[in-house]
Design goal:
Number of strands: 31
Radius of gyration: 25 Å
Shape: globular
Strand content: 15-25%
Distance between the termini: 35 Å
Low-confidence stretches: 542-548
Bound molecules: beta-D-glucopyranose
Helix content: 25-40%
Number of helices: 18
C-alpha cells in the first residue's frame, strides 16, 4: 500500500459537513461516516450508520428512509435474554446491509452509574455480567450479516453533561471490575470488529488518547485485534492519539483540528508517530474488515428489499420480553376481556409510543405521528422528540372489540378524572424523554404527570400506569395505583406488545436491569456533575456541550467504585423503590433444592417450578458475596454472577444450573495485571431480585490468579 492509501483509511468523513471539502467523495450517503475504499486492493468503502436500536436517520437526513425500530436497549436488557439481543442485532444488521451500510455503530454498553443519564436508554443497564453478555449477543447478531459492529463508548461515558470535557476519575481495579468487565465480556463473546473510544477523559486523558485504555488494556491485557475508531469529534491531537492506540479518526470534520490528515503525514515524516504505528493502524482496520466477513462478502451496491413484517415481529418480541410488571395489587392485570369501558390517558397514546433522542434515533416504518423540535440545548441540532407510529389506542381496541375504548390527552387532570370515572380499566401513559447530549435534571416525571396520575387514580381505583421512560423515575403516587408497567421506550411495535401484556396474551417476564431509586439522593451522585458549569459555559459560548472542548474542567468521582447500582444500595443499606432484577409475573414460581459445587468456579443447581395456572418465564439470578478481609464487616455486596431466563408451563419444574462468571469472584490486581481470587467462604444465593434471595448456601474456594 502507498502512504496515501494508508492515510486514506485512518480518517473518515462526516457526510453532513464533508460536502465540497477537498478530497471528499461526491456520493456520500447522509449518515454518520464514510471511509473511502481502495478498489485496487479490494478494500471496501466503509459506510457507517448508527446505532443499537436500528438504522438511524436523525432529523430525517435521508428523507423517507425508514427502518425498523427496536425498543430501547434497556428493554432488551430487561429481557435478560441473550437470544433476544442476538435476534435484534441480526435484524438491524440485516437492514443496515440492505441499505448499503457495512459498519453499524451499535454495541452501546456503558454501565448505568447514574439514574439520570441521558443515554441510559441506549445501554444495557448497571451490571457488567448482564450488560456484557447481552452486548456480545447483540454484536454477534449484527455481524452475522458480514458487516462490522462497534462496541462503544470505551469507556466511562457515564454521563452526558459536559461529555466532551469531564474527567472520570476512578481506580484501575474498580474500573476493571465494572465498566471494563462489561466491555471485556462483550468483546470476547461478540468479537466486534471495532471499538469506539469515548468523548470523556479517564483519569486525566481523553479516552481516544488514553494509552492505558487503548494499548495496555485493549491490546496487551485483552489481545484485541480489531480497530479503535474515535467517537465523532473525540480526537484532540495527532501524535498523542495515534501513539496511545487510536486507529481511526471518525467524522473528522467535527474535530477541533484535522488531526489524522496532513498533521499525521507531517508527524510520520518527523518521526513523532512511527511508520510502524501507521502500519498497525491499517492492519487493525483490515483485520476487523476481514474478520467480520465484509471483505469476502461485500455489502450490496444497491438498496435491497427488507421484510418489514418479519422485522417488526423481532421488535415486538424484544418489547414483550422487556416490559417489567412493577406492581399488580389485587391482580388488576391482566385485564378481563369482558371490560366494557376502557379509558387511555396521556402520552399521545392515541397515536404512538415515545422513543429516545440523539444519534440512535430511528425513523421507523409507519411514520412519525408526533415530532417536537427542541428550542435550545446541546441536543437541539440533532434530536427531536419523536413518537413511533404504534398506537396503544388502536392496539387495545383490537384486543377488546367488545369494549368502548376512548382516549383523553391528560392535559387537564380534572377532565381526565371525569373521563376515568366508572371505567372498568384506566391506563395512564406517562412519558419521560431522554436524549444523547443531555442528562435529565430530575427523576420526576415532567409536565405535572404525577399530579395527573394522582387525580385519575383518586377518581378510579382500576388505574394502571404504563411508563415510557429512558430510565428510572420517582413514583410518589405508587401506593395509590394498583398496577404499574415499565415499558421503557417500546419501539415501533411497542403498543402491540403493551396491549398483549395488559390482556395477558403475553405474561410479563422482564426484570429491571437498573435500580429504581426511592429518591435521587440515594444514588452516588444525586444530580449531573458539572451541570451549572456547562450551562454557564454554553450560555456564554452558545456552543452546546459538544463545543468548547478545553474551556471547562469537570471532575467526576466515583465513590461507588466497582459497586455500581444494586451493589451500592447494599453497601449503603439503602432500600430502593424497586431493586435491580425485580419483576412480577401473572404466575408464581417456587425455588427448591440448592446444591452448590466449588471448582474452577461456583456452580449452583436448583429446581424452579411454575406453581400457577399460566405459562410464564422466570429469571433466576445467581449472586455471590466475596469473603471479607478482617475488619471489613461481615459481608461484601453481592454480585450478579450468572442468570437464565426459563419458560415454564403451568406446573412444570426445571432443574437449572448456573455457573458463576469467574471474574465476578475475583479482584483485579493492578500491579500484576491479572485477576486474583482470594481463598475463603463465598456466600452464594439464588435470587428473585438483587435484594431477594430465596435459596442460600456457602462455597469454599482456594486462592487462584488468572490472566484476562
Ligand atoms: C455518538 C456516537 C455515535 C456518533 C455518530 C456521537 O455523537 O456519541 O454514539 O455513534 O455520534 O453519529
Amino acid at each position: 500500500m502507498s502512504q496515501d492509501e494508508k492515510l486514506q483509511m485512518v480518517r473518515t468523513w462526516f457526510p453532513p459537513l464533508a460536502k465540497g471539502k477537498p478530497g471528499a467523495p461526491d456520493d456520500l450517503i447522509p449518515s454518520a461516516g464514510e471511509m473511502v475504499g481502495i478498489p485496487r486492493l479490494g478494500i471496501p468503502t466503509l459506510r457507517e450508520s448508527d446505532a443499537s436500536l436500528g438504522v438511524a436517520n436523525q432529523v430525517n437526513q435521508r428523507p423517507g428512509d425508514t427502518a425498523t425500530a427496536l425498543p430501547s436497549s434497556l428493554a432488551t436488557a430487561a429481557s435478560f435474554n441473550p437470544q433476544v439481543a442476538e435476534e435484534g442485532g441480526a435484524m438491524i444488521g440485516a437492514e443496515a446491509r440492505a441499505k448499503r451500510f457495512n459498519v453499524l455503530l451499535a454495541g452501546g454498553v456503558n454501565l448505568t452509574r447514574d439514574p439520570w443519564g441521558g443515554r441510559d436508554f441506549e445501554y444495557l443497564g448497571e451490571d457488567p455480567v448482564l450488560a456484557g453478555t447481552l452486548v456480545g449477543a447483540q454484536i454477534r447478531g449484527v455481524q452475522s450479516n458480514h458487516i462490522v459492529s462497534t462496541i462503544k463508548h470505551f469507556a466511562l461515558n457515564a454521563q452526558e453533561t459536559g461529555r466532551m470535557v469531564y474527567d472520570a476519575r476512578i481506580g484501575q481495579a474498580a474500573l476493571h471490575e465494572s465498566d471494563l468487565l462489561a466491555f471485556e465480556i462483550g468483546i470476547e463473546t461478540g468479537h466486534p470488529a471495532s471499538v469506539m473510544c469515548a468523548y470523556n477523559k479517564i483519569n486525566g486523558d481523553h479516552a481516544c488518547e488514553n494509552h492505558e485504555l487503548l494499548t495496555n488494556v485493549l491490546r496487551s491485557d485483552w489481545r484485541y485485534k480489531g480497530w479503535v475508531m474515535s467517537d465523532w469529534g473525540a480526537v484532540h491531537s495527532t501524535a498523542k492519539a495515534a501513539n496511545a492506540g487510536l486507529d481511526q479518526d471518525s467524522g473528522a470534520e467535527l474535530d477541533d483540528g484535522d488531526w489524522f490528515r496532513d498533521k499525521l503525514r507531517a508527524a510520520l515524516a518527523a518521526g513523532t508517530v512511527p511508520q510502524a504505528r501507521l502500519d498497525a493502524m491499517v492492519r487493525h482496520i483490515l483485520t476487523g474488515v476481514i474478520a467480520s466477513g465484509l471483505y469476502d462478502d461485500p455489502s450490496p451496491s444497491t438498496v435491497q428489499p427488507i421484510d418489514t413484517d418479519a422485522h417488526a415481529r423481532v421488535a415486538q418480541k424484544a418489547e414483550e420480553q422487556g416490559i417489567v410488571l412493577l406492581r399488580n395489587e389485587g391482580a388488576l392485570l391482566p385485564a378481563a376481556t369482558t371490560a366494557r369501558r376502557i379509558v387511555l390517558i396521556g402520552g399521545h397514546a392515541d397515536v404512538g409510543v415515545l422513543s429516545g433522542g440523539g444519534s440512535s434515533q430511528v425513523r421507523s416504518t409507519g411514520g412519525v405521528p408526533v415530532e417536537i423540535p427542541l428550542k435550545s440545548g446541546p441536543a437541539s441540532s440533532f434530536a427531536r422528540i419523536t413518537w413511533h407510529n404504534s398506537s396503544p389506542l388502536r392496539a387495545i381496541r383490537a384486543l377488546a372489540p367488545q369494549a368502548d375504548v376512548s382516549y383523553v390527552d391528560g392535559s387537564d387532570p380534572q377532565a381526565a378524572a371525569r373521563a376515568a370515572k366508572g371505567a372498568d380499566l384506566v391506563l395512564v401513559f406517562a412519558t419521560q424523554w431522554r436524549t444523547e447530549a443531555e442528562d435529565v435534571t430530575s427523576l420526576s416525571l415532567p409536565d405535572h404527570q404525577d399530579a395527573l396520575i394522582e387525580t385519575v387514580a383518586a377518581a378510579n381505583p382500576h388505574t394502571a400506569v404504563v411508563l415510557e421512560t429512558g430510565g428510572p423515575v420517582l413514583m410518589p403516587w405508587l401506593g395509590k395505583v394498583p398496577a404499574v408497567l415499565a415499558a421503557w421506550y417500546p419501539g415501533q411495535r411497542g403498543a402491540e406488545a403493551i396491549a398483549n401484556v395488559i390482556f395477558g396474551k403475553v405474561n410479563p417476564s422482564g426484570r429491571l436491569p437498573i435500580t429504581f431509586p426511592a429518591s435521587a439522593d440515594q444514588a452516588p451522585r444525586p444530580a449531573p456533575v458539572g451541570l451549572a458549569q456547562v450551562a454557564e459555559h454554553d450560555a456564554a459560548s452558545n456552543a452546546g456541550s459538544s463545543g468548547g472542548t478545553t474551556a471547562l474542567a469537570i471532575a467526576v468521582d466515583y465513590p461507588e467504585g466497582a459497586d455500581v447500582g444494586y451493589r451500592w444500595y447494599e453497601k449503603k443499606a439503602l432500600k430502593p423503590l424497586f431493586p435491580f432484577g425485580f419483576g412480577l409475573s401473572y404466575t408464581q414460581f417456587r425455588y427448591a433444592g440448592l446444591s452448590v459445587k466449588a471448582g474452577r468456579t461456583i456452580s449452583a443447581s436448583f429446581d424452579v417450578t411454575n406453581t400457577g395456572s399460566r405459562a410464564g418465564a422466570v429469571v433466576p439470578q445467581l449472586y455471590v458475596s466475596l469473603p471479607t478481609a478482617k475488619g471489613q464487616g461481615t459481608r461484601s455486596p453481592a454480585r450478579l454472577a450468572g442468570f437464565a431466563r426459563i419458560e415454564l408451563a403451568p406446573g412444570e419444574t426445571r432443574h437449572v444450573t448456573l455457573q458463576a462468571e469467574p471474574r465476578i469472584l475475583a479482584s483485579w490486581d493492578t500491579t500484576r495485571r491479572q485477576w486474583s481470587r482470594a481463598a475463603g467462604a463465598y456466600q452464594v444465593s439464588v435470587n428473585r431480585a438483587a435484594d431477594d434471595p430465596v435459596l442460600t448456601d456457602k462455597a469454599t474456594l482456594p486462592a487462584i490468579t488468572f490472566r484476562p
